[in-house]
Amino acid sequence: MTIHSARNAVPDAEPLQPALRADRPGYFVAGAGTPVVMLHSSLSSKSQWGALAERLASRFRVIALDLCGYGDNAVPAMGTAFTLDDEARLVTDRLDRLGEAHTRVHLVGHSYGGLVALRFAQWTSHRVASLSLYEPVAFRLLDDKDTALVDVRRLAELVSRLAAAGHRHAAAQVFVDFWSGDGSYASLPLPVRASIVHRVDKLPLDFQAALSWPRGPEDLRAIVAPALLLAGNRSPAVVQRIHTVLTRALPNRRSGSFDCGHMGPITDGHRLNPWIEAFLDARAERDAAFAAPHVVSPASWASVAD
Question: Do residues 260 and 232 lie in contact, with contact meaning Cβ atoms separated by under 8 Å?
């Protein structure tokens, strides 16, 4: 599953199309059917998923959420004991309010949002039908002495120090350039940089949460939902190593690599989205077949993807 793309910029999230406008604080909903819940990366928002939502809305109920401190949501107070459980509770609360308390959902997550999806799936496994993840930042799956993890810890300390000192542009620059390459932040249009800087205050809490869970592969054993794990071969070493560990830790998974960077769902969504779409369609078809086995002929099973 190797797909080639020369682009590796870090544009801001695409604006919502009129049909996908954010009609309620903290989320947008499009379409009808089995829910597909989308969780964005750090410094992004629900609008990251506009293009994929349009592809899926004809047969799924797409729910794109803002995580804590992003989009319509206020940044939690600094100095609090913020964890991934706070993000998982936000997802749970939003879904309950949207009437999905007793419905299994498909989760789609990118980077930090992918890690939140893993925590939600481990915490409430009975609510998750599948996972489609692009490079979840499950840092704790790596050994503490791993040089890639050491680099991430240094990045977290630097970003937190710069943000606390009020150097928000500098904090944004070192963060974006770490994930997308030197000079990436400077190459962005001024309005995009301004949008990123506006969200920088949440980054220290994202690192705090991401560096505290999972404690190891054993924390992922409760995740039994089928998973699609995607990664870019031009991404930083830390997420490529995490991808390798995850493919071993999750028992029911498929994986694939694309020729793009860590921001692939934004920069190369037109290439990645068809794979997510195909995976979700296959899962929906298989779930429907299991729900009505008396109408499924033996020959039809061959067309239902695992």
Answer: yes
**Cβ-contact 64, 46 below 8 angstroms:** yes
Which two three-digit tokens encode residue 176? Answer: 């974006």
- The per-residue pLDDT for 22 is 43
State the Cα torsion 174-180-182-186 to the nearest 10°.
Answer: -70
Q: What is the pLDDT of residue 181?
A: 96
Domain 18-140+216-303 has CATH 3.40.50.1820: yes
The pLDDT of residue 209 is: 97
User: What pLDDT does 8 receive?
Assistant: 40
50 touches 22 (CB < 8 A): no
Q: Which residues of the chain have pLDDT under 70?
A: 1-24, 79, 292-306
Residue in 31, 89, 101, 86 with CA at minimum distance from that of residue 64: 31
The residue ranges of every structural domain in the chain are: 18-140+216-303
Closest CA to 102 of 124, 133, 127, 83: 127
Backbone φ and ψ of 64, nearest 5°? -100, 125
